[in-house]
Amino acid sequence: MSLRHQLSINHYSVRQMTLEQLVDGCQKNSISHLGLWRDRVHEIGTERTKELVANAGLKISSLCRGGFFPYDNEKQRQQRLEDNRRAIDEAVLVGASLVVLVCGGIGNAGLSASRRMVEEGIAELVPYATERAVRLGIEPLHPMFAADRSVIVTLAQANDLAALFPREVVGVVIDAYHVWWDPDLEKQVKRAAGRILGFHISDWILPIPDILNGRGLMGDGYIELAAMAAMVRKAGFHGAIEVEIFNQEFWQLPGDRALKLIKKRFEETFSGNQK
Amino acid sequence: MSLRHQLSINHYSVRQMTLEQLVDGCQKNSISHLGLWRDRVHEIGTERTKELVANAGLKISSLCRGGFFPYDNEKQRQQRLEDNRRAIDEAVLVGASLVVLVCGGIGNAGLSASRRMVEEGIAELVPYATERAVRLGIEPLHPMFAADRSVIVTLAQANDLAALFPREVVGVVIDAYHVWWDPDLEKQVKRAAGRILGFHISDWILPIPDILNGRGLMGDGYIELAAMAAMVRKAGFHGAIEVEIFNQEFWQLPGDRALKLIKKRFEETFSGNQK
Whole-prediction pTM value? Predict the structure, then answer.
């Protein structure tokens, strides 16, 4: 299998493209996998999305995203669970087998309580996801997002959380940008074996252009992506590698040029690492 | 002991003040401890610094900073060790018993090799520091600084590193801003017992105004400082708590107003926590 077939493009990497344009671009550039975002799916509907993707012979590596479990009151708790159930429904409708969970930041109750709410929230969803054969991938985010986006900030913590649930349903999504700095990474990737549902890449560039949208193109920064991919492969993950770059400047490029650049860098990143 | 006596002002919190102004401000506001920075000490010299601080009856909680161990060649390695020896010498000259180590970012050799360079660098310094009765405090920095400032990013890692050296000489400095997100924090603070040489505070505010200089005033953000201080105290640290805020906006305030504000917030933060 050539590495070309292991590349997945997350829609937000090229969010200047509509989903139609992206599907077309994937075909033209022999890219086999896609990571979808719900807001972009909503623009054309789940039925049209499913048809587009199927007609193009593409596979969906993930649907972003569910999560945001911490709540400040019962109404909010119900709303968030409902939104997560909708995410699972949408996964079924478009033909995705994985919903990525960005677990949510700190609620009024504080950090520890918010972490418990994440655990409870996932527990509530597991039966619903199980019945629909959709997997839930807990994605630890970089600690700089602990306050506003994810109280789950290390792979150790995501592994601990996933271990509370059946491995057929709950696993982890490893995004290089979020975990590369972790001295415990190799150990935790090993520990995640059998639970790794996704592997995302981009690069950590300096100076950081923006906290949220300052991710770099592979090869422009400090993350040792080939080594990390080897770890993840060794732990038994053989799915497509999803490129997820949030970068204002990159979003200014013409979509097709951005796609070609991602593909080129992807191949360069793993050129010494083919198997 | 009232909490008033446990406040230390890190000079960079009010870097709009000269060292003379800061010493004067501490006296006027009954602040007993100071955290010094070498660049500001250099402006007036070590002798004058020692005299000023002594005449004012102040104590020095730390001297910032040594570290930056990763190197790209032998010349750089020697330069960095030499600079660390100078930091130790300056600590002796001003009467500080602690040099804070900000260990340095990633060198050309990559992340793992850079981490080994930190360990080797500290090993080289230990005899020099021992002879001069100066302690070295390893400060883990937030993972968002892993590439450019510190490959040491968790308290677990700082504890592991400190454990390689005599506890009389090498310990850790815990800065709330850098470690608050860590699910392993309580365990690692306990593990650091007997090695905690400093405790720094500020707050994590949203939106983050700036990666490097976007720390908030205590009470404006998400860090549960009273709880963290209780952990640190329980682990046997009874030194002054150093307020270290890097914030462009805060630096625009008149120095004396900034000092009063820090003192007020410090007292509010720990008002339920006196002992």
Answer: 0.96
